[in-house]
Amino acid sequence: MSSIRTVVHELPVEFVVSHDVSVSMGAALRYEADDPYTVRAAFHPLDQGGAVEWLLSRDMLAQALSEHTGHGDVRMWPAGGSERGALYIALRSPAGSALLRLPARGVKFFLRDTRSVVPPGAESSRLDLDAELAQLLAGS
Alpha carbon of 45 to those of 23, 56, 58, 100, 137: distances in Å? Predict the structure, then answer.
């Protein structure tokens, strides 16, 4: 599902439990022109309700297709060896941690579609800094 201002792709995801065990899940990657630096990733078990949403950097997601990137609670890297068509995302929070494997091809298609909405380098033109500043000052 896509609109002129929003891109959403559903992808299969593997929750990696161990070297030999993984659990199939789904993920919805969502990009909105009004928040041009951010990808919302909602991870959900198949055939079950509930999802866990993380905010990811679009630039980091693109970089992770070719090299290790990230710091702190979010790290991403391309798979090597026989898994070359995959991308790993490691997430950590006070509630626990997760290692997820996504299809690199699906991530590439998603990023291609986001670039048609907001090209790289044009993100700042999509921000209303005056409105953001007014909202920040109103809360103080």
Answer: 9, 19, 23, 12, 40
Ramachandran angles phi, psi of 138, nearest 5°: -70, -30
Q: Of 14, 100, 23, which is closest to residue 54 (Cα–Cα)?
A: 100
pLDDT at 2 over 50: no
Torsion angle, CA of 61/65/67/72, rounded to 10 degrees?
30
- DSSP type of residue 4: S
- Work out the mean pLDDT of the chain and round it to a whole number: 88
29/127: higher pLDDT: 29
pTM above threshold 0.85: no
How far, in Å, CA of 89 to CA of 78, rounded?
A: 9
CA angle, corner 70, sides to 18 and 50, nearest 5?
55
Q: Which CATH class is domain 6-138?
A: mainly beta
Q: Three-state DSSP class for 139?
A: coil
Cα(93)–Cα(39) distance, rounded to whole angstroms? 18
- At 50 the pLDDT is 83
Mean of pLDDT values over 90-106: 95
